[in-house]
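Job type: complex structure
Entries:
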Amino acid sequence: MKKLINDPQEVVRESLAGLAAAHAEILRVSLDPVYVIRADAPVAGKVGVVSGGGSGHEPMHGGFVGKGMLDAACPGQVFTSPTPDQIEAATSAVNGGAGVLHIVKNYTGDILNFEMAAELCQARGVPVESVVINDDVAVEDSLYTAGRRGVGTTVLAEKICGAAAQRGYDLARVAALARRVNANGRSMGMALNPCTVPAAGKPGFTLRDDEVEMGIGIHGEPGRERMPIRTAHELTAQMAATILSDLPFAGGDRVIAMVNGMGGTPLLELYLVYGELAQVIRSRGIAIARRLVGNYITSLEMAGCSITLLKADDEMLTLWDDPVLTPALRWGI
Amino acid sequence: MKKLINDPQEVVRESLAGLAAAHAEILRVSLDPVYVIRADAPVAGKVGVVSGGGSGHEPMHGGFVGKGMLDAACPGQVFTSPTPDQIEAATSAVNGGAGVLHIVKNYTGDILNFEMAAELCQARGVPVESVVINDDVAVEDSLYTAGRRGVGTTVLAEKICGAAAQRGYDLARVAALARRVNANGRSMGMALNPCTVPAAGKPGFTLRDDEVEMGIGIHGEPGRERMPIRTAHELTAQMAATILSDLPFAGGDRVIAMVNGMGGTPLLELYLVYGELAQVIRSRGIAIARRLVGNYITSLEMAGCSITLLKADDEMLTLWDDPVLTPALRWGI
């Protein structure tokens, strides 16, 4: 294992120290318990938006903390759920009197720990609504999940709901919006090469030199099939067809599209995949209204990509365009 | 070789097609000859800023085309210089009557082809100034270079000079500024793992499982030494010390700092390195006034990072903060 780290047990804390040092005007980092929080939190009268999950998916979630997106993020150890005390502390810290939305990816540990934290907060008078993201069309159950896994739509939900909270939506309305985003978002990923969790010291899975894993999870969980590598044209078409037929998306729809790198794939390749995706989408009579191309929800240095499509309405697009100031997404400010 | 591509010979063109499809409001792509150009070019009365070089370093340079940064970028094949006809066509296309600045990284092929293009343009009445970036402190000459290689300072020069041109600086003043940025910028990189050029099909070099290349070039050119991997703390300190003593930087200086990923290194690790760098810099009495942490000048999927420090004056910082709207750098718009 070759990594730019010191002690495998301290990677998350040391990385967060760097995040805090780099972006002091946007966010702060609490170390006991560990969470990342907007520099100006709590914002009085504003719904707080909190997410979290295992580390190793950067920039998600800590890189999305800031004005117009998340109020706080709770990072667990690498590929490990955050604990209830982290989530409870972050939720309390961002409560500006209007309650807090939890955006939770569908993994068993995340669900349990966010639920426990929400109960603790509610018992202390902090209203909490939780929305579970389960957008991965690849598999119905998986290694760490009952039902579908939560992946790329999380990024889009954090942007859109963060903007809604910034505009002053109340908690019920932000939560309803998050559920609508989840209901209209679908994702699928694939891997060319695995990644290594620092504390494990060896790759989480292996692939042959000519093999890819189609439908991979963001922790390297098995997908739909291992198959010989094909062209980007064929791989993109396969992922897009699976996603498009699932919602289903239809001619006339407008979508927010994300081509996301898993961490170890060059931007040169991600744009090539985006070009392929844009052709597929156009051929179905669907319009890509907004898009992201880059590393947004990663799996350490895994090579591969995922595609997320969100069927967007006017409200979502307006909120998407709202100003955002975070380490990883920034516009209008 | 496992990559998200179709034909190794068509990677650059197909990736540029995706770039154009994703960012039509910012830029256009010409395919014969190949260049990337601001959607609204030429801007009448504004100095044009053009850069270019081999592909495989994305987002540099095509991802930096847009308002407040580059007017055009000329991408060669992967790790191969662009040809004079590309550069000449791009230069002519962005000339708004105030002349064009070429920002050229110091590689023999780039220098030759940019010089030839500049002569052709000048013969046709387009004033061209060229500034060579040679900021890499690792080695004095290298595989493709007489003198020092041009690396991370290129990104900072493109932002600062792009802002100056946007403000209406004349050609002589933008060129003088670019020379000042180069004179005050220093970089050094290191690699944990190599990358594979698609047309070559195999890694450009090999490293043992416990070995890193200190002072690596962005095409995998040999650096200063191969050595056993050390902690991020030690590796960062070594790079920082070499950079700091070269200019030299001194207590009281303000710097723009960039911790840049080579393409295959997780953001988790880059922020950890940034945290280490911030400590070194602070211990020297130097202030980090602005910073970038992420993938800006990459080497395909190479694992590793580079550090760039620019001793910045008030003018550079003001121009740094100016609005920019490109695929890879965006703020204030």
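Summary: Chain B has a mean pLDDT of 97. The first helix of chain B runs from residue 11 to 22.
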